[in-house]
Every structure is written in structure tokens, then in C-alpha cells.
From TrEMBL:
Coiled coil: none annotated. InterPro entries: Glyco_trans_2-like, Nucleotide-diphossugar_trans. This is Glycosyltransferase family 2 protein. It comes from the Bacteria. It holds the Pfam family Glycos_transf_2. The lineage of its organism: Bacteria, Pseudomonadati, Bacteroidota, Cytophagia, Cytophagales. Residues 8-133 form the Glycosyltransferase 2-like domain. SUPFAM superfamilies: Nucleotide-diphospho-sugar transferases.
Length: 318
């Protein structure tokens, strides 16, 4: 296979000792021949480092592997960008140390990306494994395994992504050249997927591949589990910043309407989790785009009174 088909998988792990060997093995077992793996142990305090080194020591075959160890945890987006700067493969994957790729994921994704070679990235469906061991698909499928919704025509994907979370980020395979051209991840943010999807969708088409490529685990240690953490969400301030970016990128009324839906969603969770500073910023942004209505007025009143209902929020979520 040509070097032009090579994929670099960047696997960043933090306290993923329970899963990291299975994750790395899933890269080795990809049926896409031209690939390389860069593993970053991002300051783990469990046995992640030992598990990585043990797997590499026993590694059969000719998969090129580079291992990087950080003594302490560094911001995820900055760590990824440091590695991305050294990548010269045409395709790149950001793989978490607790997710698993199915054997045909890379080959199917790149096959689709070649057909839509002007797309910034390709994404696919995934299996979601929750804490109770229950498995579902990210996109709804019928009993025959067929997608319920038509994914062939993505339509105005930018507006869709502004309005709601629509893409399972672990399934993404990026065009490296485009990702680098757009500056990679925003190093000032605590998480990457919302921002990079929005920025790329604003300027480039995206492609969907109809296959189940990833097993994504949902567990208490995952970053996304703390999205609406009580009182001190690490992610909400970054969400607010991305919403500010969206306001500047929007050019049509329909896009501002989509942003209004997003703001209302994030504001609701910010208030329920008693993250009042991000809630204040979301209200200010809502004022700038002309949000109105009873629910919005109620949220503003809630913010003014700073009612702490987070104890109930925790009970409802659990």
C-alpha cells in the first residue's frame, strides 16, 4: 500500500490502565496495512505506563510505534497538537486510551474519504457501552441493523452541529493537511470535539461512512462524564467560548436560531449543576443574539436568584 494511504493513530491515555492494552491491540488488528501508532501516557498515576510498555515489549509484526511519557498531566488539546505537528501521514486519528477500533474501521473510513477527498474528515457510527454493560448504537438503527435516518445527505451540517451533538467524535478520521491548516485543536480549551467539528464544518464538507467503527465506553473516569460537574465543571467554560466563536462565524438568521437552541440547552444544565459563572456568560450571549421567551426569562430569574438545585440534579441524573 502506498505511503499516501498511511494513517497515524494518536492515542492519548490518562489513567486508562484498565483498557489501554485492548485499545492498542485494536490498532494493531486494523486491516488497513499502512498505519503507525503514537502513544502518549499523559501523566497517568495508575499502571497505564506499565501496561503500555508491556504491550509494546510483546508487540509482534511490523507496526511502527512511538511512545511518549509525560511526568504530569498536560492539557489534552496541547498534547495532541504537539504530536500532530510531527505527523506527515495524510490521515490522522485521535484515539482515546479507553476506546476500541473494530478491524475495518480505518480501511472503511479512508475508502469513503477518498470518494469525498475534499472533506475535512469522515465519521461513522459507533457502539456505546455504558456503565451497566448495556450496548447501543450512536445512531438509531432498526431491527435489521439499517440506519433509521438518511445519512447520505448531511445537508447543512454546520447548523446541525451548532444546534446539537451529532457526531461521535472517536469515529473521526481527519485529513491531516486540513487539520493542520486550521491550526489543529484550540489549545486554550479543556476539550476538543465541539470546537474542531464546528470550525471544520464551517469551511469544509464532511463525510459519513455507514459502518460501526468504534466501541466507545461511558464511565465515571471519562472526561465527558464531568461535562456538567456540580459547581465546577471543567468543560462548561470551554463550551461558552465555542459558543462565542459560533456567534462570530454565523452569517444567517437560521444559524443564530440554532445557536439559541444550543445556548438554552447548555444554560439549563449550567443552572441545574449550579455552575453560575458559565450560566451568566451564556445569558449574556443569549442577549446578544436576541433570545426571548418565557423559558429564557425563567432561566435569567433563576440565575439572578442563584438557586442551588444541584443536589436534585445529581439525584435525577443518577
Amino acid at each position: 500500500m502506498r505511503v499516501s494511504d498511511r494513517v497515524t493513530v494518536i492515542c492519548i491515555a490518562y489513567n486508562h490502565a484498565e483498557w489501554i492494552e485492548e485499545t492498542l491491540e485494536s490498532v494493531r488488528l486494523q486491516d488497513h496495512y499502512s498505519k503507525e501508532l503514537i502513544v502518549v501516557n499523559n501523566g497517568s498515576t495508575d499502571e497505564t505506563r506499565e501496561k503500555i510498555e508491556n504491550w509494546v515489549r510483546k508487540l509482534p509484526g511490523s507496526l511502527p510505534v512511538k511512545v511518549i511519557h509525560h511526568k504530569e498531566e498536560l492539557p489534552y488539546c496541547k498534547v495532541f497538537n504537539q504530536v500532530l505537528a510531527e505527523v506527515d501521514s495524510p490521515y490522522v486519528v485521535d484515539l482515546s486510551g479507553d476506546d476500541v477500533m473494530y478491524p475495518e474501521h480505518l480501511s472503511q473510513s479512508i475508502k469513503r474519504l477518498k470518494r469525498v477527498n475534499y472533506a475535512a474528515f469522515v465519521f461513522s457510527d459507533a457502539y456505546i457501552l455504558n456503565e451497566e454493560g448495556e450496548v447501543s448504537t450512536y445512531y438509531k438503527r432498526n431491527t435489521a441493523g439499517e440506519l433509521v435516518d438518511n445519512m447520505e445527505e448531511l445537508g447543512d451540517i454546520y447548523t446541525t452541529l451548532v444546534r446539537q451533538n451529532f457526531i461521535c467524535s472517536p469515529t473521526i478520521v481527519f485529513q491531516t493537511e486540513i487539520l493542520k491548516k486550521e491550526g489543529g485543536y484550540d489549545g486554550s480549551l479543556s476539550y476538543e470535539d465541539f470546537d474542531i467539528q464546528i470550525r471544520l464544518a464551517r469551511k469544509y464538507p464532511l463525510a459519513f461512512s455507514n459502518h460501526l467503527g468504534i466501541l466507545k465506553r461511558k464511565h465515571p473516569k471519562s472526561l465527558s462524564s464531568g461535562q456538567y460537574q456540580r459547581y465546577q465543571s471543567i468543560m462548561l467554560p470551554s463550551t461558552v467560548e465555542v459558543c462565542r466563536k459560533i456567534k462570530e462565524m454565523n452569517t444567517h438568521e437560521s444559524e443564530d436560531e440554532a445557536l439559541g437552541i444550543r445556548i438554552m440547552h447548555e444554560l439549563k444544565h449550567a443552572l441545574w449543576s449550579a455552575n453560575f459563572d458559565p450560566a451568566k456568560s451564556l445569558v449574556e450571549l443569549g442577549e446578544q443574539i436576541g433570545l426571548s421567551g418565557f423559558k429564557y426569562w425563567l432561566y435569567k430569574f433563576w440565575l439572578r436568584k442563584r438557586w442551588d438545585m444541584s443536589w436534585l440534579y445529581i439525584k435525577i441524573k443518577n
